[in-house]
């Protein structure tokens, strides 16, 4: 019975789309006012609801958003982000891609390519990328908890090319640069002649569990171009975050 009441309260909060008070919950459910206060308190204690203004009114919490997000299929996330990635691909005239962090790994789950039929472009492929040698992975790892970063650094750091960073000092310095400027880059660290840049997609208080990136040939992706695109990807990441959260909240 208590669980059913909690679920009813969550549904009312989600449908309202704004902060809900115990009085409003009482009117909607017909439950005693003390019971409504206890329900809201329990939801806040478990992270399923939050009181953004500290006035007793609550909204859906980050924990519930995280649960919904982790259960979200790649197809749904890609559908929410695809229009933004496509627009960015047209703007940069390069391939733009979305990556996802799960099970302690980062994998590219979607890519949008330029429409220009005369444009030679690079497709990054889909699937898991090394945590130490790809912009999409490093953009997430740099903002992860220190213990997870340490597990990457102490792991097997394969040298894919002569440009791959394989020492603890190099990788720690790289993570610090990424945190300072807000984006990561990969200068021929996996394949000679190919460079990429990526920015973390932060979901509320959950952290960076996605990243958006762009990839191209090194002749077009020198340091100045990567810097320019990297700054633009930071703004794109914010918009992608909003699109993904709206997608999840619509289902909560």
What does the model show?
The chain is of the alpha+beta class and 252 residues long. It has two domains: 2-60, Orthogonal Bundle (Arc Repressor Mutant, subunit A); 72-249, GAF domain (Beta-Lactamase, 2-Layer Sandwich), CATH 3.30.450.40. The protein is 48% helix and 19% strand. The protein is built from nine helices and eight strands. It has helices spanning 2-16, 22-29, 33-45, 62-70, 74-92, 135-141, 146-153, 168-181, 223-249; strands at 49-50, 59-60, 95-102, 105-112, 127-129, 184-187, 194-203, 207-217. Strands 5-4-3-8-7-6 form a six-stranded antiparallel beta sheet. A two-stranded antiparallel sheet has the order 1-2. A hairpin with an 8-residue loop joins strand 1 (49-50) and strand 2. Helix 1 (2-16) packs across helix 3 (33-45). The radius of gyration is 21 Å and the shape is elongated. It starts with a helix and ends with a helix.
Topology:
Elements: H1 2-16, H2 22-29, H3 33-45, E1 49-50, E2 59-60, H4 62-70, H5 74-92, E3 95-102, E4 105-112, E5 127-129, H6 135-141, H7 146-153, H8 168-181, E6 184-187, E7 194-203, E8 207-217, H9 223-249
Antiparallel strand pairs: 1-2, 3-4, 3-8, 4-5, 6-7, 7-8
Helix pairs in contact: 1-3, 2-3, 5-9
